[in-house]
Structures are given as structure tokens and as C-alpha cells.
Amino acid sequence: MSDLAIGSIALFGMVGLIYAGMHVAIALVLCSFLGVLAMKGSAALAGRMLALAATESIESYVFGVVPLFVLMGFVVSQANIGRDAFDVANRMLGQIKGGLGIATVGANAIFAAITGISIASAAVFTRVAVPEMLRHGYTKRFAYGIVAGSSVLGMLIPPSLLLILYGILTEQSVGDLFLAGVVPGIILAIAFGIGVYFMARSWPTFAGSGISEEVTPLSTGAMISKSLPIMLLIALVLGGIYGGFFTPTEAGGVGALGAILIGFARRTLPTSKIWRVLTDTGQVTAAICFLIIAASMYSRMLSLSGLPEYLSSAVAASDVGYWGVILAYVALILAMGTLLDSSSILLIVIPLFLPIMKTLGIDPIWFGIVTVLAVEVGLLTPPFGLSVYVIKGTSPDRALKLGEIFIGALPFAAIMLVVLALILAFPVLATGLLGR
């Protein structure tokens, strides 16, 4: 049997194991080992090759950006900075029809700029924003749908954990990816806000017929007090990166330290929360490490089989064209998003499709933004929808059904597809700030 056939069998076997319920990382490692074993005929050689892949995948200095930004995200979440962002946004937007919902979107966008983790946004605003929206006449599905939809901003607006992961997998500049995510992230946030406004005005059966708005009373001093820490963190992290003062890895460390100091200064980060922050950071980092190691093994097995090169040549010789490949790729990601989490999708598709995109001359930075945006849709779609499950687990409403959250999130998934179409049609929206 040829190496190409072995690689194909390993690929389809891995997909089958995942859909059968096996953990993604274990399926990747198992199929990678068996694939190399079948190609080389030596278990010892297969073990050494995969061990080398495991070491090289996470020993890089660049990888340090992952635990540092995860730590900063959890510190910000525990220090009640999300609540402050919501209070400020509500004070500024509360008088508009659907203002509380728009404020939730705005607060999520601000929160995303200092966390990069959609799970943290979903958990925070489920407890902060949903009770307020329900109290003002929003339907349950609309309130939870707003939180679910806007929580995905954390995966696009820098510092995004998915963009970091993409940068590590493709060896692209994390700083360039962050800069490329700014305009699409702002466009998506604005589109969500406009969508909330029109749903609140024109779709009372979905949004709530008795929506009332009430601005949170905040003095000028309170506004400054609540917004200053947020602005300082954003300026510290993103300003440090784009100003050339820090590398993204160093910015993660500085941002985490800044968040801790702000939490201590405001007395919103007691020592009882520190242990939870550290354990949560360790758990997320360990899970990401395991996935990256498995993906590195999988990538090496595919390269050894020659499958990516074969597919690249086949696509170049076919008549499907540029748009045929791009649309098929996006459709595949959307389909995978119904059953897999965001990181797993990236780890599976990037090693296989990146060589094809290079053959077509596609900008890898733009390709990363398209990939992350398409992957984000999966956070809202059944049956997996990770953000929806986080909201369900965080909500104090035990009678809340998953179906209600999914229904509420569907309009936001549709808005994301519209924004994705814009980025596909006008790549300059993602690459313009890079001068490409």
C-alpha cells in the first residue's frame, strides 16, 4: 500500500473516531502513530518521530503567549471588569431601543479586547447582563441569544486565543494576525448591535413586546472609575504590541500582571479567587498543549504521506477555481462546527488545507481571519455550540432549555455569515491595516 493511501486511510479513520465520540487529541495521536508505523514499518521509529514532534510543538518561546493570555483572561473575569464594561456601555447606549442588548454587545467587544476567550465572556455576561435584560422585558431566548452571539467576539477581536493558535500552527506573526482581526471584529460588533436594534423594534414576538430601557445612573466620576482600568489594560496590551514595546508573548505577561495589580488595587481579586484563576488557567493551558502536540504529530504524518502535496496538485489542475476551493473550505468548517469545538477544527483542517491555499497564492493572514470567523459560527450552532453549553451551565435558571438558547443565537449566527461573506468578497477589510 502506498504512503498516500495510508495517509488517506489515517485521515478518514481519525474523522470517524472523532465522530464516534473519541477525544480529538487521542484520535489524532492514535491515527498519526498508526499511520507512521504503517509507512515506516517500525514502532520505535514512529515513536521517536512523534516524540520529536511533541517536543518541538510547545518548546517555542512563541507558545508562551497561550498561558499568559489565558491567565489574563481569567483574572479579568474574576476581577469583575466585565460588569464594569457592561455598566459603562449601558450608561452610553441604554436609551436606544434595545439599548441593554446593544450595551451587552458593546461590553462584550470591550471585554474581548482584554481577554480573547469567548468562554469567559459567555460566563460573565450570562450573570451580569441577562438578569438586567429579563427585568426590562426581553424574552428569555433573546436575552440569552444576545449573550451567546456577542460572546464569540472574544475569538476575533485581539488578543484572540484562536488567532494565537492559528499563528502557532502556521508560523505566522501573531501581531499581524491581531492587527488583521481589528477591523473584522469591529464590523462584527457593529453588525450585532444593528441586528439587536432592528430585532428589538421589528420582531416583538422574538425579542419581547414590552421592552423598556432604563439607563444605569452613573456619575462622571463613576464612569471614569469603571472605564479607566479597562482602557489601561487595552492600551497596555495592544498599545505595547503595536507600539513595538513588547512581543505578543511579553504583552501577555505584562497584561496578566496589570490585571492582577488592578484587581488588587480595586479589592475585587481576593486571595480566595487566585487559586481558582490559577487552576482554570492550568486546565485550559494543559488542554491546549495536548491538542497542539497531537496536531503536530498529525501534521507530520500527513506530510510524510504526501497527501497535502497531492491535494494541492489536484486542486491546481482542477477547474473548480479559487472560489470553488474557498467556498468548499468554508462549508466544511461550518459542517464540522456542528460537532467539534473551535480549537479541534483548526488543528484538523489547517495542516491539510494550508498547502492548498499556498498553491493558490492566498494570503495566510487573510486566510486565518476567514478560518476563525467561520469556526466561530460553530460556537452557536447545534448540537455542539460550546458557547451555548457554557451559558446553560452558568445560568442560575435551572428551567432554561438548550433549545431556547440555540434559537436565540441563530440570528447572530446568520449575521456572522453575512460578515464572513463581506470578508471573503473584500479581503482588504482584514489586510488593509497591514498595508497588503
Automatic annotation (TrEMBL):
Residue stretches making up the TRAP C4-dicarboxylate transport system permease DctM subunit domain: 13-428
UniProt keyword Isomerase present: no
Name this polypeptide is given: TRAP transporter large permease protein
GO MF: transmembrane transporter activity
Subunit structure: The complex comprises the extracytoplasmic solute receptor protein and the two transmembrane proteins.
Keyword Cell inner membrane in annotation: yes
Localization: Cell inner membrane
Record lineage: Bacteria, Pseudomonadati, Pseudomonadota, Alphaproteobacteria, Hyphomicrobiales
InterPro entries for the chain: DctM, TRAP_DctM
Family, similarity comment: Belongs to the TRAP transporter large permease family.
Function of the protein: Part of the tripartite ATP-independent periplasmic (TRAP) transport system.
Species whose genome carries this gene: Microvirga lupini
Alphabetical UniProt keywords: Cell inner membrane, Cell membrane, Membrane, Transmembrane, Transmembrane helix, Transport
Transmembrane spans: 6-39, 60-81, 101-130, 142-166, 178-200, 228-245, 251-269, 281-300, 320-353, 365-385, 405-434
Primary subcellular site in the record, as a coarse category: membrane
